[in-house]
């Protein structure tokens, strides 16, 4: 998709998610460069608002029949009753890692764009849809050609993209990356740099892991996909927009993702709270889930 000076061209929902996330990221980089870091609070506020406005306008114009759930939406918009009956819902975080965006030199912030569909579908081209069952098992992978049926009354993530603008990276279901082979040495677990859960510190001691503090959830899940870490574990509070897009990408790449008790991650719920998450290389999931159970006993 070319914007601003060009004609908007859309292949499919995968490409749209990728291109909108990347464009929003470019705009955030331009804002950061223009305004500087003299007033971090103002920069963060402007970043949230401008990225939200761009994504809402673009999706409303290019996918007018779809509903949007955004972190920066009003309470009334988040409670929009159409979301509970809509076939297609875009779940977006216009600026994930707002704190890091306002700190000079930090690159661990992201833009998230994901598409949820009420019923499982096989896209005309691109990777298979990813359903909640796959989110619990990591069973869906790029090019598998399979469709995971969600539980009755649920739905599935069918496209997603995570732009890491300051790192020059956009990961998406349009062309999912292959998970790198696990390196030798201790498991590296990405954790919040500002509020790492106490149980994750206990988990690290139990399984001999190394904790790697990072900013946004998108950056942490992307780190699993790119091989910077082997897992991301979080508990203590998040929302659907924090993980929908990066989870879609991680699953398309062949990673494992679930709640920390092993239950499925489900999206477009009436209450968008999704307080905990595990994303990891598939072969590490049993060890990490068992360790989490042990530290919670």
TrEMBL record:
One GO term under biological process is:
3'-phosphoadenosine 5'-phosphosulfate metabolic process
Cofactor entry:
Mg(2+)
**Enzyme kind, highest EC tier:** hydrolase
One Gene Ontology term of the molecular function aspect: inositol monophosphate phosphatase activity
Q: Do you know which InterPro entries this protein is assigned to?
A: CysQ/Inositol_MonoPase, Inositol_monophosphatase-like, Inositol_monophosphatase_CS
Instruction: From the UniProt record, list the reaction(s) this protein catalyses.
Output: a myo-inositol phosphate + H2O = myo-inositol + phosphate
Q: Which Pfam families match?
A: Inositol_P (PF00459)
Q: Which EC number(s) does the record attach to this protein?
A: 3.1.3.25
Which residues does the record give as Mg(2+) 2 binding sites? 93
Region Disordered: start-end pairs: 124-148
Q: Which CDD domains match?
A: CysQ (cd01638)
Q: What is this protein called?
A: inositol-phosphate phosphatase
Entry annotated with the keyword Metal-binding: yes
Q: Keyword set for this entry?
A: Magnesium, Metal-binding
Per the record, where are the segments of Low complexity compositional bias? 131-146
Q: Which organism is it from?
A: Sphaerisporangium melleum
What residues bind Mg(2+) 1, as annotated?
71, 95-96, 242
Taxonomy, top ranks, is: Bacteria, Bacillati, Actinomycetota, Actinomycetes, Streptosporangiales
| Superkingdom in the source lineage | Bacteria
């Amino acid at each position: 998709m070319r914007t601003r000076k060009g004609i908007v061209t859309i292949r499919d929902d995968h490409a749209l998610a990728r291109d909108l996330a990347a464009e929003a990221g470019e705009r955030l980089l331009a804002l950061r460069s223009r305004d500087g870091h003299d007033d971090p609070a103002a920069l963060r506020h402007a970043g949230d608002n401008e990225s939200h406005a761009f994504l809402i306008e673009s999706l409303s114009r290019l996918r007018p029949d779809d509903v949007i759930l955004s972190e920066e939406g009003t309470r009334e918009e988040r409670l929009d009753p159409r979301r509970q009956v809509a076939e297609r819902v875009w779940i977006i975080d216009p600026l994930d890692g707002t704190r890091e965006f306002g700190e000079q030199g930090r690159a661990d912030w992201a833009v998230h764009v994901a598409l949820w569909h009420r019923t499982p579908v096989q896209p005309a081209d691109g990777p298979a849809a990813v359903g909640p069952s796959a989110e619990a098992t990591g069973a869906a992978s790029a090019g598998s050609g399979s469709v995971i049926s969600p539980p009755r009354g649920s739905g599935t993530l069918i496209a997603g993209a995570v732009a890491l603008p300051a790192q020059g990276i956009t990961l998406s279901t349009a062309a999912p990356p292959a998970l790198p082979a696990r390196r030798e040495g201790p498991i590296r677990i990405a954790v919040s740099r500002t509020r790492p859960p106490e149980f994750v510190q206990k988990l690290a001691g139990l399984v001999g892991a190394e904790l790697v503090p990072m900013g946004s959830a998108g950056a942490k899940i992307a780190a699993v996909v790119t091989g910077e870490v082997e897992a991301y574990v979080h508990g203590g509070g998040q929302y659907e927009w924090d993980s929908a897009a990066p989870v879609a990408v991680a699953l398309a790449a062949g990673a494992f993702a679930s709640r920390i008790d092993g239950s499925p991650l489900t999206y477009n719920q009436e209450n968008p709270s999704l307080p905990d998450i595990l994303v990891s290389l598939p072969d590490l999931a049993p060890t990490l889930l068992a360790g989490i159970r042990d530290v919670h006993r």
